[in-house]
Specification:
Blueprint lengths: L7 H10 L6 H13 L3 H13 L6 H14 L2 H13 L6 H13 L3 H10 L6 H13 L3 H13 L6 H14 L2 H13 L7 H13 L3 H9 L7 H13 L3 H14 L5 H12 L3 H14 L17
Helix pairs in contact: 2-3, 2-4, 3-4, 4-5, 4-6, 6-7, 6-8, 7-8, 8-9, 8-10, 9-10, 10-11, 10-12, 11-12, 12-13, 12-14, 13-14, 14-15, 14-16, 15-16, 16-17
């Protein structure tokens, strides 16, 4: 209750008032609560404190502390925890196995992630498959991500929203435009997964990254919802990548309309104009920023070419 409400101070006070030795459940509540509140460092501190008091973690404890390691991309901590898991014989547990696959993938160690994954005989759930697909996609192994996706289907595991986001990201990174379009269509028509904003942004990135700006523009026009800042930021980044002044101007205006005090679209549009030698355009952007009181903060741009990874 305390941790879910992020009332950490009250939780710690209550914890300190409990008699020793503390139960595994109590320690796990503190560790999982910290991890769920995106406070991975605190979760790891509680885990170390638990071990220093000879507390014995269970499956839920390990899953929570591995989640903390994932959030921090702390491979060293994750490996130490994995070693202890193996030592006490929890390495065959399905929940812990999934958490280990995810931890190694998010820490960029796909070799270890794959090793744990392959050892999970008949215990792989959709979360484990997704961790592998997304991990490969984000770490630059697009072909491996697509191979795992095909293997997942052969294993009769139904893909979900996260699966397709990972697969589309892989297609985008690998320049597999036609394949990505086919997978997106299959996601909707065959699997009945309705596209979220991030799926749509990924498709725009897929088209735009590889120079299909007209297709990206048409995709936006055909959306059945009003494009948000993620959509326009992705499109604007693609326009900058390929130096398209006209489309970039349109995307920037849309993004500025949604987030008028964010300097990112102004700066990116200015870069597009500068790259094409349109100095009048550069000066016009700077003038608009001054008129609207928008300040450029170094390194603060929220716009990235990589939507899902």
């Amino acid at each position: 209750m305390y941790m879910s409400a992020q009332r950490n101070t009250d939780a710690v006070r209550l914890f300190s008032e409990l008699p020793d030795p503390k139960s595994t459940i109590i320690w796990t509540v503190l560790i999982s609560g910290s991890a769920q509140n995106d406070n991975g460092e605190e979760a790891l501190l509680w885990y170390r404190e638990m071990r220093s008091h000879n507390g014995m973690p269970d499956q839920a404890t390990f899953a929570s502390v591995l989640r903390a390691s994932s959030g921090l991309a702390s491979l060293e901590d994750g490996r130490k925890i994995h070693s202890f898991i193996f030592h006490i014989g929890y390495d065959k547990d399905e929940l812990i196995g999934s958490a280990l696959v995810d931890m190694y993938a998010k820490c960029g160690d796909m070799k270890s992630s794959a090793k744990v994954f392959r050892e999970m005989i008949n215990m792989k759930d959709v979360i484990s498959w997704n961790s592998m697909i997304v991990g490969y996609a984000k770490n630059g192994y697009a072909e491996c991500a697509l191979e795992i996706f095909e293997e997942m289907k052969r294993a009769s595991v139904k893909p979900d929203e996260v699966t397709f986001l990972g697969v589309l990201t892989a297609c985008s990174h690998a320049g597999m435009v036609m394949e990505g379009q086919e997978i997106y269509d299959t996601m909707i028509t065959y699997y009945g997964v309705q596209p979220r904003v991030d799926h749509c942004a990924c498709m725009i990135d897929l088209f735009g990254r590889w120079g299909f700006l007209a297709e990206a523009e048409k995709f936006i026009e055909n959306l059945d919802f009003e494009p948000d800042s993620m959509i326009w930021a992705t499109y604007l980044s693609a326009c900058r990548l390929h130096g398209d002044d006209i489309r970039g101007q349109h995307a920037a205006e849309k993004l500025i309309g949604l987030e008028p005090q964010d300097s990112s679209p102004y700066v990116l549009l200015s870069h597009i104009h500068a790259a094409s030698g349109n100095w009048d355009g550069v000066n016009s952007v700077r003038k608009k920023m001054t008129e609207k009181g928008v300040k450029k903060f170094a390194g603060s741009s929220k716009i990235s070419l990589d939507v899902a990874g």
